[in-house]
Design brief:
The protein is mainly β and 117 residues long. The protein is built from no helices and eleven strands. Strands 2, 4, 5, 6, 9, 10 and 11 form a seven-stranded mixed β-sheet that branches. Strands 1-3-8-7 form a four-stranded antiparallel β-sheet, with no helix packed on it. Strand 7 and strand 8 form a beta hairpin. The N and C termini lie far apart (40 Å).
Length: 117
């Protein structure tokens, strides 16, 4: 079975840092584009960052320069380093895996990040 298990969410003060991790199983991790998304109540889920199979990275404008996505193909894990956190980063964060025409074929369960001012 495909599983994406996200860890690392929590409560942090404005300006602080968190690292999210997402452990994958049940598919060939290195062949999939991995991404992080976030969602707040009443809003659509938005792409935060993605990393290709070759390591190319893309970020939402709102997180550029503050967040870094990395992947470890040996550990089947994708990470999201979040620095200089702002209250508007508060959301449930989801990891996803996909390829080709299906960039978000698989989803993880989500982890809550709350940034307090």
């Amino acid at each position: 079975d495909v599983q994406l298990q996200a860890f690392g969410g929590g409560l942090v003060q404005t300006g602080g840092s968190l690292i999210l991790s997402c452990k994958a199983s049940g598919f060939t991790f290195r062949n999939y584009v991995m991404s992080w998304h976030r969602q707040t109540p009443g809003k659509e889920r938005e792409l935060v960052a993605k990393i290709s199979t070759g390591g190319n990275r893309n970020y939402a404008d709102s997180v550029k320069g503050r967040f870094t996505i990395t992947r470890d193909n040996a550990e089947n894990t994708v990470y999201l380093q979040m620095n200089s956190l702002k209250s508007e980063d508060t959301a449930v964060y989801y990891c996803a895996a996909g390829r080709g025409s299906y960039p978000t074929q698989f989803w993880g369960q989500g982890t809550q990040v709350t940034v307090s001012s």
